[in-house]
Design goal:
Radius of gyration: 26 Å
Distance between the termini: 73 Å
Helix content: 40-55%
Shape: elongated
């Protein structure tokens, strides 16, 4: 039974090539758009889900003269903590300026690491993130 359906479908595709191309291309474009939108939505919903208290984590986005960027001036963190009792803890991150790629060396078996993302952080980020370390200490 299905064999007959496939035969008829194949004959119709061969008979109406232009119409079949439009239908198949439209289906492919539509499915691709659906998958891309679904991937974007899943990625946005999983932001900071790997943290224990991810639903209580917020990020400051500043807008200056119509341009939006992630981040703010240094005193903003302490100002938020002092002025708003709802703010439990603040963590400041600063991207290491001027180095797009950096070669780091470790004292473990003379190993090297080429990295593109280096951030300077305050020590309280370990309280806020509750990270588990494979080596090293989370407190100084």
């Amino acid at each position: 039974m299905f064999r007959n359906y496939f035969k008829i479908a194949w004959r119709n595709i061969l008979k109406n090539k232009g119409f079949a191309f439009i239908n198949i291309a439209g289906l492919a474009i539509g499915l691709t758009a659906c998958v891309l939108i679904l991937m974007y939505v899943i990625d946005e919903n999983n932001y900071d889900r790997h943290h224990k208290d991810g639903e209580r984590t917020y990020r400051i986005i500043s807008q200056v003269k119509g341009d939006k960027f992630v981040g703010s001036s240094a005193p903003t963190a302490m100002g938020l903590k002092n002025d708003f009792p709802e703010v439990e803890e603040v963590a400041r991150l600063l991207r290491f300026p001027g180095n797009e790629k950096m070669l780091l060396s470790a004292n473990i078996a003379n190993s090297f690491l080429l990295t593109q993302s280096i951030f300077l952080v305050l020590m309280n980020i370990f309280f806020y993130q509750k990270m588990k370390f494979s080596s090293g200490l989370s407190v100084m």
